[in-house]
């Protein structure tokens, strides 16, 4: 193989070493630099991915916080406490026998004094809806409590009923209607063979 022609680089003394274009790069430094940038790029990409996912799931919002309307609790109706200081007059406005008496028992068992609860038949026997009447506006709560005890749905103010039971004592009057007729006690059963009119079954003569 023929020798190549000499050039200006062959004139450099060997004592100066290799410089300039002839110096080789350090392969170790280049490898760590690439690894560092790869690690940084990985962290950035993972962070961007997590951030984007949180935006997509509405975990992060750039606007003002949405206004959540407050829910106003619905007030619940409460039944007034039973006021046993009233006298009570129970009128049977139906044809059901024993209805006024059984209603009186229920009122007395609730705490009303027995001497302050009286019964009678109403002037009409086809009263449609059981109604509790009170005299003064201040007595309405007591009427509502008594109506709740009896399962009545109506209260009304009226001065037609007062001083019927105990003189000068505030009074509530219950007029029993057809809606309460089903609560009347069943009539006593007559023993088989016994006379139904109370006679001894003997014949006249």
| CATH topology-level name of the domain at 87-183 | Alpha-Beta Plaits
Distance between the termini: 174 Å
| Most strands sheet | 5 strands, mixed
- Helix coverage percent: 25-40%
CATH architecture tag of the domain at 87-183: 2-Layer Sandwich
Rg measurement, Å: 51 Å
Indicate the proportion of strand residues: 5-15%
pLDDT average, as an integer? 79
Q: Enumerate the strands of the largest sheet in spatial order, edge to edge or round the barrel.
A: 2-1-5-3-4
Query: What ranges have pLDDT less than 50 throughout 5 or more consecutive residues?
Result: 198-205
User: Helix count, per DSSP?
Assistant: 3
Instruction: Name the helix and strand elements from N-terminus to C-terminus, one letter apiece.
Output: HEHEEHEE
Total number of β-strand segments?
A: 5
For this structure, what is the CATH class of the domain at 87-183? Alpha Beta
List keywords for this structure.
five-stranded mixed sheet, 205 residues, single chain, rod-shaped, Alpha-Beta Plaits
Question: How does this structure look, described?
Answer:
The chain has 205 residues and is an alpha/beta fold. A 5-stranded mixed beta sheet has the order 2-1-5-3-4, with helices on one face. The protein has helices at 27-56, 99-109, 140-150; strands at 87-92, 117-121, 131-134, 154-157, 171-176. The longest helix is centred in the N-terminal third of the chain and has 30 residues, at 27-56. Among the domains are: 30-60; 87-183, Alpha-Beta Plaits, CATH 3.30.70.
